Amino acid sequence: WIRSHHGSKSVTIGNITDAYNKAAHGNGFNEEFVYGQTELQLIDKYADLTGDLHTDLHECLGHGSGKLLPGVDPDALKAYGSTIEETRADLFGLYYVADSKLVELGLTPNAEAYKAEYYTYLMNGLMTQLVRIEPGNNVEEAHMRNRQLIARWVYEKGAADKVVEMMKKDGKTYIVVNDYEKLRTLFGQLLAEVQRIKSTGDFVAARNLVETYAVKVDPVLHAEVLERYKKLNLAPYKGFVNPKYEAVTDAKGNITDVTVTYNEGYAEQMLRYSRDYSTLPAINN
Fold first, then answer.
1. DSSP code at position 262
2. Which H/E stretch holds residue 249?
3. Under a CB-based contact definition with an 8 Å cutoff, are residues 248 and 258 in contact?
4. Beta bridge partners of 245
5. How far apart are CA 47 and CA 97, in angstroms?
6. Which residues in the chain come in under a pLDDT of 70?
7. pLDDT score for 84
8. Residues paired with 246 in a beta bridge
């Protein structure tokens, strides 16, 4: 009710996002998993921008849109609710990141930029996010389930028209997108169905969608992805160490400067934050 009456505010710490993107450039990941030069050039030009824009659309408008029909229990989808909601928000972002209005508003530079997000999203959902899963395990986390659900659904539904293909080159599997416009149409069709499931509280349909597309892992493909990723010597998760700021004061106590140092490791910094900024006592009396 607070959101419906007063709105909401989302904050993206842009310098962190930018640092994350820049740290990934040239690490060999795209060169290993992206199909060809056309896709690599598209990603190099636009993926940082369209990735951030998709996140913004997901958080602000995806989660912020849609309503339940009168009388529908907000918890009607039970264990599948989180995955369905993340799927809904991601599909909103995917559908509208390709909208011509975004070019008109200057949010995307041209009508081709969105393709970078479409390609990287499908590559991640169908293949590369598997590097975060141990062999033999299913997909458990809601965001990872939602990405696989979307990618596998559009791959299957577009198979007759070869909208998206998984092709072999030099013994390796790659994602190929043949028709970006049809892919957007498929995203829209799935968004309509997921919104229906959410709005009506259709538990059976939610369960069928998640269990069919979001959970199981192809063990052969998984083994291939892990082997290719291992050779890159990259970590599947990343964290940031923030600089340590210290005020420099004059004889009167006025701040004259601020020094910036990187003299802490990640663990040391987290422990210092816990010690200096915790709102709860370390020991309960």
1. -
2. strand 244-249
3. yes
4. 260
5. 12
6. none
7. 98
8. 259
CA distance 240 to 22: 13
Whole-number pLDDT of residue 267? 94
> To which residue do tokens 């809904």 refer?
88
User: What pTM value is reported for the model?
Assistant: 0.87
- CA distances from residue 259 to 35, 256, 268 in whole angstroms, order as listed: 45, 10, 19
pLDDT of res. 184: 98
Q: What gap in Å lies between CA 234 and CA 23, rounded to an integer?
A: 11
Rounded CA separation 237/216 (Å): 22
**Contact criterion met (CB below 8 Å) for 80 and 203:** yes
Structure confidence at residue 6 (pLDDT): 84
Contact 248, 255 (CB under 8 A): yes
Q: Output the six-digit token pair for 227.
A: 């082997």
Please measure the distance between the N-terminal and C-terminal CA atoms of the chain and give it in whole angstroms. Answer: 38
Residue-wise DSSP of 227-242:
HHHHTTT--SS---PP
Q: How far apart are CA 55 and CA 120, in angstroms?
A: 13
Place of tokens 């965001």: 143
**Cβ partners under 8 Å of residue 187, min gap 6:** 91, 94, 95, 150, 154
Classify the C-alpha dihedral 236-17-139-183 as positive or negative.
negative
Return the pLDDT at 16. 84
State how far the Cα of 205 lies from the Cα of 194, in Å rounded to an integer: 9
